[in-house]
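Input (structure):
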């Protein structure tokens, strides 16, 4: 089954770097940049995924370019065939803004 933009999927994390993580959902590889792990900055330690974790994300981009044209950081220097990008932040409600 292919994922689509807007889908909420559960990634099983297979790799974590300081700047991103990769996981598998329905046989497809998703990429999640570290700025998407949490709305809090800096990202709290408990929001950093670990290999084997299950991370729920919302798909916001499908890969439409050949893998060799993707940036090396997205493919982890060619280690992964990335099918989509996901976000944890898109699942979290926007914080309320205080009026002045």
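Output (sequence):
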């Amino acid at each position: 089954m292919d994922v689509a933009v807007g889908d909420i999927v559960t990634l099983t994390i297979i790799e974590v770097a300081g700047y991103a993580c990769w996981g598998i959902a329905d046989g497809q590889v998703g990429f999640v940049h570290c700025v998407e792990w949490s709305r809090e900055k800096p990202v709290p330690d408990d929001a950093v995924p670990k290999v084997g974790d299950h991370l729920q994300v919302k798909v916001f981009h499908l890969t439409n370019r050949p893998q060799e044209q993707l940036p090396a950081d997205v493919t982890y220097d060619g280690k992964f065939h990335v099918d989509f990008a996901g976000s944890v932040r898109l699942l979290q409600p926007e914080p309320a803004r205080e009026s002045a």
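Notes: The CA atoms of residues 44 and 63 lie 28 Å apart. The chain has one domain: 8-91.
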